[in-house]
Amino acid sequence: MFEGFFNVVKKRFNDNEEEVHEVVRCPRCQTNILLERYEELNKVCPNCNYHGRLSAKERLTITVDKESFREFDADMISRNPINFPEYEEKQSEIREKTGLKDSVVTGTATIKGSPVVIGVMDSHYMMGSMGSVAGEKIARAFEYATENSLPVIMFTASGGARMQEGIVSLMQMAKTSGAVKLHSESGGLYITVMTDPTTGGVTASFASLGDIIIAEPKVLIGFAGRRVIEGTIKQKLPDDFQLAEFQNEKGFVDMIVERRKMRSTLSHLLKLHGYYPQGKEV
Amino acid sequence: MDNNKSAWERIQLVHAKGRPTVNDYLPLIFTDFYEMHGDRLFGDDKAIIGGIARLDNMPVTVIAQVKGRNINENKNCNFAMPHPEGYRKALRLARQAEKFHRPIVCFIDTPGASCGVPDEERGQGEAIAKNIAEFMTIRTPIISIILGEAGSGGALALGVCDELAMLENAQYSVLSPRGFASILWKDASREQEASEIMMITAEDMVNLGVAETVIEEPLGGAHNDLDKISENIKEYLSHKIQEKCEKDIDVLLKERYTKFRKIGEFTE
């Protein structure tokens, strides 16, 4: 589940050491791409169309209406439920490095005018793993949406449950799934957008419960990690195993949507369910 | 109860040959057990059995993960690692129980869900997610009991309940200690160390609010007195199901949601 990190390498183009270009290597097709070009393309590989990992901030910027995002629970940070050695220290370090408080950002926003509750997971924070904070924020987001008759859009990106919180992280699967279920029973629309990677306990809970499940091209989606399966069956798996296209073919993903079309697709789907700008039908 | 055993010692105990499995308990706790097969979608998974039985006189639905008692039984039940169709069978039977107002008893005993190519192809993640979400609002009492080991989402898929009990030496964990050591320290051989810091014992679960009850095992472990441990389980179930059946179902569902809703430690 930890495979596929973008391997950022500094590559010197000239021997005279003056001009230095940063290059990223696509984890799917191994093509080297100039970082500048990659950023221009919103981190999509121009060769194979793999949709790379965005930060929560980048995702919100390209998804919701400008300045419409209002964050929930911005200061929530986790404690150390099983007293795991050095967990607090590790978290402080990552908080400093990423500017995030934990692996998910939630809040309200509008998409082309339609109001939504939105959650975005960020794989740069401990691989997007779900512990107490992610569980609580996601459950609260769904509860808020239920109370206010709002749709929910979740961008998932996670290695699964946060190991350092032990059984408490497993229970977040029940907490989030329960909140999704109550939102669903109230008639609310829930759209999951699976991004790279969506695996483990997140796949086995709220990520798989969307009324509509969208995935970005070439992203990794699965329950068990590739290495775990390879270790069990003692053979190498094909390259396309557990990619979005595989899940689409097997019937677990409704549609694969490119990043550049995501915002308009979401907007159309929201309107098809009656969620119009400012709550008015137009 | 024996409070002096380490988590590691308890792991050895539940993995020891002769540890009773659900097939040992069923005839001693229930009567008139009729097994039902299949998920009506793909097939019948042998790692999860389910059916209708009587507890005292009351009809109940029983859903259980099955460990083998020897290598052949283990091959047959995939070492208690269910496939997606096992979880979907469990959900089918739970819905049936809801329809006919039967309480549900789940027995959990699994190292985790099956992790293979066919499991991914048939949506292991979706099957587990669906069970977790649906069990949250099934309108009949659900009691789950962990008999031996309960690993990861594969256990939780039968663990969304009104009350969770654990046999004294049973464990519940986000991942096997071996897997935990392998992921966090890249060294599976440190599994004993992992088992001691992960908080996986029945006592830990009660302290963390994950389990409500610990069922006492006979001295030295459940295998030493099958009649006695079965009696303890039966006594617990009879009492608990009665208690839950007397509750208004909407109150019960609210309490079920709250039980999981409040687990987690954070500051804001």
Helix/strand layout:
The complex is a heterodimer of chains A (282) and B (268).
Chain A: E1 7-12, E2 20-25, E3 32-34, H1 35-40, H2 56-63, E4 70-71, E5 77-78, H3 87-98, E6 104-111, E7 114-121, H4 132-147, E8 152-158, H5 166-185, E9 190-198, H6 200-203, E10 212-215, H7 226-233, H8 244-250, E11 255-256, H9 259-272
Parallel strand pairs in A: 7-8, 8-9, 9-10, 10-11
Antiparallel strand pairs in A: 1-2, 2-3, 4-6, 6-7
Chain B: H1 7-15, H2 22-29, E1 31-36, E2 48-55, E3 58-65, H3 71-76, H4 84-99, E4 104-110, H5 117-121, H6 124-135, E5 142-151, H7 152-156, E6 163-167, E7 171-173, H8 177-185, H9 191-197, H10 202-207, E8 213-215, H11 226-245, H12 249-261, E9 266-267
Parallel strand pairs in B: 3-4, 4-5, 5-6, 5-7, 6-8
Antiparallel strand pairs in B: 1-2, 2-3
What does this structure look like?
The complex is a heterodimer of chains A (282) and B (268). Chain A is of the alpha/beta class and 282 residues long. In chain A, 34% of the residues lie in helices and 20% in strands. Chain A has 2 domains: 21-50, no CATH class; 51-272, 2-enoyl-CoA Hydratase, Chain A, domain 1 (Alpha-Beta Complex). In chain A, helix 4 runs parallel beside helix 5 (166-185). Chain A is globular, with a radius of gyration of 19 Å. Mean pLDDT of chain A is 92; it is low at 1-14. Chain B is an alpha/beta fold and 268 residues long. Chain B has a single domain, classed as 2-enoyl-CoA Hydratase, Chain A, domain 1 (Alpha-Beta Complex), CATH 3.90.226.10. In chain B, 43% of the residues lie in helices and 19% in strands. Chain B has helices spanning 7-15, 22-29, 71-76, 84-99, 117-121, 124-135, 152-156, 177-185, 191-197, 202-207, 226-245, 249-261, and strands at residues 31-36, 48-55, 58-65, 104-110, 142-151, 163-167, 171-173, 213-215, 266-267. In chain B, strands 1, 2, 3, 4, 5, 6, 7 and 8 form an 8-stranded mixed sheet that branches. Chain B is globular and about 50 Å long. At the A-B interface, strand 5, helix 4, helix 5, helix 6 and helix 7 of A face helix 5, helix 6, helix 7, helix 8 and helix 12 of B. Strand 5 (77-78) of chain A pairs antiparallel with strand 9 (266-267) of chain B, so a sheet runs across the interface.
